[in-house]
Amino acid sequence: MNRFQIHVAKSPEEMARISSFFLSPESFDDTHHTPGEIEHFQKRPLQSLEDEHSYYWYVQDEAGGVIAVISFLQNDHRTGGYILEYVVVHREYRKAGLASQILDDMIQFISSIKGRYIETFTCDLEEYASIRRLFDRKGFARVGVQPDYYFPGEGKLLYYKMLQPPQIPEKGEAEAHI
Description:
By secondary structure, this protein is an alpha+beta fold. It has helices at residues 12-23, 35-47, 98-112, 129-137, 173-176, and strands at residues 7-8, 54-60, 66-74, 81-89, 117-123, 141-151, 154-162.
């Protein structure tokens, strides 16, 4: 398997390239994006530069074009849980192991910083079958379904991967947080 170099996006220029990639016809098989997804693709990468707990990693081709992106962030509670937002690979680079590599690297990174778990989601349409298979291979468990989430007939599938065994609070420790 080819090993691709992953770049950590840190500049407005990189984030603009990522936004353009998300909105390009080469990124998603299902381009019937919700209004919120379009806004997210346009604004969230640049906004993430203000959030130290938000990450956009990308891979580029020899010409400098973005060919893959993974985006993830720590959850709002800042308790070691992470949310995988997107794993997107350019149509021409699929089947090269790129999605598997960037997902493995993200899992390894989150584990190395003592992340406890990763939650993610995808659509139940056939166009998303390959990402569902990848989540299964990487040890994510499907933990829920939200029918008609995106549009009528398009449900949201929820996935979860435990990285660190849960710690049971000592007696009295839980009450101290109330």
